[in-house]
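Researcher: I've been going back and forth with a colleague about how GAF and ANTAR domain-containing protein might be arranged in three dimensions. Neither of us has a model we trust, so I'd like an independent prediction. The organism is Rhodococcus kronopolitis, in case that matters for your notes. Sequence below.
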Amino acid sequence: MENAPVSEPVSPAAVFAALAEIVYRPSSDGEVYEAICAAAILLVPGCDHASVMIRNGGDYVTVAASDEIARQVDDLERVVGEGPCLDAIEDEAAQLDPDLCTAPQWPGLAARVVAATPVRGAMGFRLRVDGRKVGALNLFTDTAGVFTDTAAEQAAILAAFAAVTASAVIGGGEVSTLRAGLVSNREIGKAVGLLMALHRISDDDAFDLLRRTSQQMNVKIAELARRVIDQHHGA
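Model: Here is an independent structure prediction for GAF and ANTAR domain-containing protein. You can compare it with whatever you and your colleague have in mind.
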C-alpha cells in the first residue's frame, strides 16, 4: 500500500494573506467568521476543528464552525456548562487542555467529548471588544498532546483577527469596518517579504522574526511591520 502524500505546511503569511482576500472582497459577517475557522486549521499546529462562539445576552451562540464536530463540542459545553470555550469568555487567560483523556481540567465535559467525538484536546481564546467579553475562538484537535505553547502562540495571533471581526459585527458596523481594521495585514505581508529578501530566509522564519521582535520590543506586530517598511523606503 502506497503511503499517502504529505501536504506541505502552510505559512502564517500565506494564511493571513488568504484571510485578507476574503475580508477585502464583499463578504457577509458569517463568511468572515467561517474564514477565521478555516484559517485556524491551516495556521495552528494540530488544529483539526474550530469554531467562533459569541455571547448573546445570557446565551452562548456558535456563529461559525469548520465542521459538525466543532459544533458538537460547543453544544456539549453548553449542556454541561463547563469547558475551555466558556471559561475563555469569562476568564482573563486563554484556556488550554492538551489531553482530555488524562486528568482533564473539565472532567464532565471531557468524558462526553471523548465518548461522542474524536476530539482529544481543546483551546479557547477570549474575544474582547471595547473592554467587554463577547465570545471565544475555540480550537480542537484529534491528537492528544499536540496543543503546545507554540500552537497557543499561533492561535493567539488569529484570535486578535477574530476580535476585530467581533468588534465590527457586535458594534453594528459593516464588514468595511473589519477591512479597515485589517489594513495592517497588507503591511505585515510586505514586511515579511522584505525580511525574506534581506536575510535570505523563508516566509515562516521571516514572520517568526517579526513576531519575536515585536514581543521583545513590546510593540504591536502591525506597528513593527510599518517601521520595517518605512526603514526600507528611507534606505
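Researcher: What would you highlight for our discussion?
Model: I'd start with this: The beta strands are 49-56, 59-65, 95-97, 121-129, 132-141. After that, consider the following. The two ends are 56 Å apart (CA to CA).
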